[in-house]
Design a protein that fits this description.
Blueprint (H helix, E strand, L loop, with lengths): L8 H16 L11 H23 L9 H7 L10 H13 L4 H15 L1 H17 L5 H6 L1 H13 L6 E4 L4 E3 L2 E3 L4 E4 L48 H18 L2 E3 L8 E3 L3 E3 L5 E3 L1
Antiparallel strand pairs: 1-4, 2-3, 5-8, 6-7
Amino acid sequence: MQYDAEGYFEDLQKFFTITAETTTSHQLPEFVLKLPYFRRIQSRLFGLVDKVMAARAAAPPDPERRTLIDDVLAAVDDQGQPYPPDLLRAAIIGTYIAGIDTVALTCSFAVYALLKHPHVWERVVAEVRPIFQRTSTPTMEDLKEMKVLHAALLENLRYYSVGPGTPRTASEDFAFGGYRIAQGSNVLVGTAVTHFQPQFFPDPFTFDLDRYLEPRHEHRQPNVFVPFTVGEHTCLGAGMAEIQVMATIAALVNELDLTLDPLNYEIQYKTAPSRGPRHDLAVRVQ
């Protein structure tokens, strides 16, 4: 039995935003999580998740069609004990909210970047539209042919990173760059700093998709191009996010001729909780 998020999207979006702004970015005080408004949202989502867990627990095991939820329900801690219900609910809600904020904001940045640099838009159009002339639904193999679009999106991830920093809490005292950081301090790891260092990306404040094409491949330098962070903290959905953004932007490029409105618009940023364009970013369909 399958359950989709239709009817729950607004709750999912608000649940993600509020929990991220309280527990991750600390933009809101944690007492917000106790307000009746948030409790109602949480109750509705937990009800959905409980239905999902009950349905999967009642279903006969099928090794050929095992899902992430099956793995979550079967997981145990270091002592071999099952995880508590609230942790299971959080893990399953994560499968619904993953990418709601970040993929949408990346697509918004990508539209702005392509339109702000008309020569890039033209190169992407010249590549994408012929592919759509032979198929209305591009496959993975078709997406692999869109090397210019992929390069433009990689440059978008470098230049307009949705997550330019990763918030963490210091688990112990340590020194860094001549500063002493106390245990329990909130720190922000500036993962996107390397994106604008000229020793890694020459002329870093120029939007240049050719960085990612032969022969340059600047993004392949170890631990330098990290729009999804790096190491064991790399976003689990990084590959899926690239596919989602490519498919979305390819469809827009194929279907529409767009311009910024106004033409001289300069991007303004907001962070709530992920970094993205302000709501005054607008485009005009030609």
